[in-house]
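Researcher: Structure for this, please.
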Amino acid sequence: MIRFDILSVVPELLESPLNHSIVRRAKESNLAEIYIHDLREYGKGKYRQVDDYSFGGDAGMVMMIEPVYKLITRLKSEREYDEIIYMSPDGELLDQKIANQLSCQKNIIILCGHYKGIDHRIREHLITREISIGNYVLSGGEIPAAVVCDAVIRLIPGAISDETSALSDSFQDDLLAPPAYTRPADFNGWKVPDVLLSGNPKLIKEWQENEAVERTRRLRPELLKD
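Model: Predicted structure, token format:
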């Protein structure tokens, strides 16, 4: 079983993506646990403040160190964590290799940034890994955190009914997946390639491999650089 503890100032944003489809089934099957923690419960004063102005006078508010430190310290007192991840546009770009690595871990904390970012001391002393889902900025780290959970949980044995399906996903072998077709074999004159109807596993496998390479070369040539 894998456990995610997600730290957020807007936990409501995580309710839908983490309670449906494969992620929900994995949770119901005790293959994954996801706990969402509201950082405001560790906020300062009557209004549970979790952000403040930055030193130096830059525009925008910054997440304070104390609420994050308190919550991470509490969680670490209860169990050992393999990774404490900060979702940041500065981080390493999430890919299938990273998802595969994380799927082998047991306990993971994900910190969702917000506002103008987080006090840098959190990154220096508490975070073990920073991950980005793309070269752009979002309003917060909740959606990226949900992306990481989905990408990782679907790789856990039993999460998908056909476990070989995940192994043939795009990027598992640094190639895009080949085209997929289903019935009817002829729709409005648009036909499924004859080889897929041949019943010959060897020919089908060769066709799929060739198509995967060709699609990758045409659509994502940078994946073939190695």
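Researcher: Any notable elements?
Model: The mean pLDDT is 93. The chain has seven helices and nine strands.
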